[in-house]
Amino acid sequence: MSAIEQLLAKNRAWAAEMVAADPTFFQQLSEQQTPAYLWIGCSDSRVPATQLVGLLPGEMFVHRNVANVVVHTDLNCLSVLHYAVDALKIRDIIVCGHYGCGGIKAAFKNYKFGLIDNWLRHVQDAHHKHAALLATYPAEEDQLDRLCELNVIEQVVNVSQTTIVQQAWERGQPLAVHGLIYRLTNGLLQDLSICITSPETLNEQYEHAVARIAALSAATSNGRRQSIQPAG
Ligand code: CO
């Protein structure tokens, strides 16, 4: 069986399973979609948006790209956002990053791959913005984890600053933008404690989320010092 034949066989089995559980499932879905969430995540095959939160088809609108970046000139992402907010009236937008992200690592290490370097330049901007904070972590793996988190926080702000989200808030449409991060090694999502629900909450939420990461740095450094002292 070829790779595509395998996929088609898996698809037939899946569709049959869904119909066995609910004979009207596909008929109902074909008539309309009313997803509650917009997910903006990384393209990484190990972070399958709908699956890892246990949702069914029809329950989440999804946009994925390398390193879950939201750029104001990216018509692809903006079109998804526009449809989600204006047509589907989605109330919760989630930017989800993940630890062990290859895109974040490439940006961090300044690897040169070609075209994608231009895309990852946006992650490097986040890196440079938070260089002082990141430098407080002695271990590179901690710096990488923190950059994965900070990148999500920056993209949450970018979503919140789009004309689409700003205009929704202006007309009184309820809309919250959240930041989450996924751990590949245990399959768990973690809330990055940022939830922007209006232009007024933007700065305060951003500063709170970044301060939380800075506080984590102090705790980590203290922990390391304490743990190495007895060995001296
Ligand atoms: Co990734």
List keywords for this structure.
Beta-carbonic Anhydrase, Chain A, 232 residues, binds cobalt (II) ion, globular
Describe the protein:
The protein is an alpha/beta fold and 232 residues long. It has two domains: 1-32, no CATH class; 33-221, Carbonic anhydrase (Beta-carbonic Anhydrase, Chain A, 3-Layer(aba) Sandwich), CATH 3.40.1050.10. The protein is built from ten helices and five strands; from the N terminus they run ααβαβαβαααααββα. It has helices spanning 3-21, 25-31, 49-52, 75-87, 102-109, 116-129, 131-135, 140-160, 163-170, 199-228; strands at 37-42, 60-65, 92-98, 176-183, 188-196. A five-stranded mixed β-sheet has the order 2-1-3-4-5. α3 (49-52) links the parallel β1 (37-42) and β2 (60-65). α5 crosses α6 and α8 runs antiparallel to α10. It is globular, with a radius of gyration of 20 Å. The N and C termini lie far apart (61 Å). Residues 225-232 have low confidence and may be disordered. The protein binds cobalt (II) ion.
Q: Summarize the amount of helix as a percent range.
A: 55-70%
Along the chain, the helix and strand elements come as HHEHEHEHHHHHEEH
What name goes with the CATH superfamily of the largest domain? Carbonic anhydrase
Strand order of the largest sheet: 2-1-3-4-5
**What top-tier CATH class of the largest domain fits best?**
Alpha Beta
Could you tell me the strand content as a percent range? Answer: 15-25%
Number of helices: 10
Overall geometry comes to globular
Small molecules bound: cobalt (II) ion
Give the overall pLDDT as a whole number: 94
What's the structural domain tally? 2
Rg estimate, integer Å: 20 Å
- Rounded to the nearest angstrom, the distance between the terminal CA atoms is 61 Å
Number of strands: 5
How many strands, what sense, and barrel or not for the largest sheet?
Answer: 5 strands, mixed
